[in-house]
């Protein structure tokens, strides 16, 4: 059986797509379904966001927004 390669998407094309549940991720032009987060992942994500924002937000160099889709 021959498989046809998946069409590569641009970031702009990905951002134009409607939201799905569960969500999709964009990596190197391909879509993949986001895995369901686990407790350990959520705890680590919270700590990481807090630390990034503690350092970067006052200096106005970055802002961590864990659920933001795409680039602002």
Automatic annotation (TrEMBL):
Q: Putative restriction endonuclease domain: from which residue to which, for each copy?
A: 12-64
Say if the entry is tagged with keyword Nuclease. Answer: yes
Superkingdom classification of source: Bacteria
UniProt cross-references to InterPro entries, sorted A to Z = Nuclease_put_TT1808, Restrct_endonuc-II-like, Uma2
Q: Which UniProt keywords apply?
A: Endonuclease, Hydrolase, Nuclease
One Gene Ontology MF term: endonuclease activity
The protein's matches in SUPFAM superfamilies, at most eight in alphabetical order, are given as: Restriction endonuclease-like
Identify this protein by name.
Answer: Uma2 family endonuclease
Provenance organism = Pseudocalidococcus azoricus BACA0444
Tell me the lineage of the source organism. Bacteria, Bacillati, Cyanobacteriota, Cyanophyceae, Acaryochloridales
